[in-house]
Amino acid sequence: MDINQDMIDAVLAGNRRILARAITLVESTREDHRTKAVELIDALGQSKRTALRIGLSGTPGVGKSTFTESFGMMLVEQGLKVAVLAVDPSSKRSGGSILGDKTRMDRLSRHPNAFIRPSPSSAALGGVARRTREAISLCEAAGFDVVLVETVGVGQSEVMVADMTDLFLLLLAPAGGDELQGVKRGIMEIADLILINKADGELKSQAMRTCADYAGALRLLRKRVQDPKEFPKAMTISALEEDGLETVWAEIETLYDWRKAHGHFDANRGRQAKVWFEDEVRRGVLAQLERDETLQNLQQSLRKKVADGALTPDAAAAEVLQALKTKK
Asked: What is the pTM of this model?
């Protein structure tokens, strides 16, 4: 794929087909594609466009896709342009992904002001895809007002999404607390809004009790400097009946405005840029290890020694790092 001014102009004009091709390029692991991807992102970054980046996670079956579609439809009907980056888990055996999130968002996927891009996690940790940051920056350059990042599922590693979004929403099911005892501490510490979904029908009373439990739990957490007095907070919603979504958006706007006015928004974006830089350096070092034939042969020899017990993993790793340092 060639990077030319026509492609750059097409992305800036919001051409969804070209945007999809651009995201495919940045997700590629080929070395020549990485060079082009860096060139493209650098060129598009000159536009200085930004969007509100919202991370979304939750337990399997909690209704993330239903919420994303209902919430996204509400936003596009208000005249906003919405991009959805949905991360699908990849198989450890085959490496494949179903990428079925787009089919679950039939209404939103057909709206002219919406763009939905499913991406495989490709064994990347953190509930996000390997190049989600780049995909976000491309969507911003394409003129989208809101970028929703729907992660794989709840867990301790999901905190990585906080390093690439402005706000983080945690979706929970009624009476689901017992299942989350092992993971909720880490994930709750980064959540800006906890949304108890399925607050309708017979589950409504349970949802109210669950919301009260989490509201109490939030009060026990250490206060964060980037939050106004009443945040983070827990709320009940029904994505299926589209109840409470406007209130969620109002709370998001309130939090965004406060952080913007007090300098926390820009400070967070700066911190995220440094994290992105450091991640790219680490990836570059790993790529060098994978490309260099001498280092590959050394690692292959050391793997056998480690497996046979002739060398400890720490000692073997130190030998590889010393070889890398010598090559420099």
From this structure: 0.85
